[in-house]
Amino acid sequence: MEISLSQKYGKLQKILSRHKQVAIAFSGGVDSSFLLYAACVAIGSSAVHAFHAKSELLPPTEAGRVERTVNERGCRFHPVEIDPLGWPEFVANAPDRCYLCKKNIYQTFLTDHSFPTGALLFDGTNRDDLGQERPGLQAVAELRVQTPLADIGFTKQEIRLLSRDFALSTWNVHASSCLATRIAHNEPITREKIVLVSRCEALLQEHGFMGVRVRLSQKTASIAVQQKDLPVVQKKHVFSAINDGFMSLGVSKVIVDSQGRYEPLG
Length: 266
What we know:
Layout: H1 5-16, E1 22-25, H2 30-43, E2 48-54, H3 60-73, E3 76-81, H4 88-91, H5 97-111, E4 120-122, H6 136-142, H7 148-152, H8 156-165, H9 191-206, E5 213-217, E6 220-224, H10 230-233, H11 236-249, E7 253-256
Parallel strand pairs: 1-2, 1-4, 2-3, 6-7
Antiparallel strand pairs: 5-6
Helix pairs in contact: 1-2, 5-6, 9-11
């Protein structure tokens, strides 16, 4: 029997309130920001530790949002520097890349000198994530990281709705992900490719396209914009300007993903 949204939130509060201290794997996105808020309400901000993996694989706009959100909550912030481009198995970019990366990051959190003694690590995985291909979930399970949002059955849309009700600044931000996910499997990940993807996505944002992905295979860039923006990006003069910009950055060919991306924000 499906339970109400308020009942789900009550269950989340009950789970979190069992702990004297909790550590949150904090990306700054919708899910982890909601979980961070819930933890601070349940046990108080001083008992909540936000662990954030800092690396050049994150879109530049993410860093500012992470710090703003943590400051809004008033919890303890633990930015942890990581260097995935120094991990040979990550750079090789095999299909299990996300599993290897997630496991390395969460192991780093769990063994960090500032990790609270006796605390558990919580992750913002939601129910929708369970139905997608997410190799990182295997690492979450192996390390016994807690996933209360998924366990209770919170969907992404429900998390956005409650985040809006609680006036969280992240309620309607577009989903984000590590820039390495834009590079085709088995093509080595390099700093140059990461920078190229980042600059291409920034160029699209300058043209007014938000929530985009630029996927790179060899020197071909595939643009995935929100479905509602497909008619705009396919206009000859708009695509021409984007194409010229991408070429100037070092891309050889530009194509538009005709499926687009669908991401309801509330």
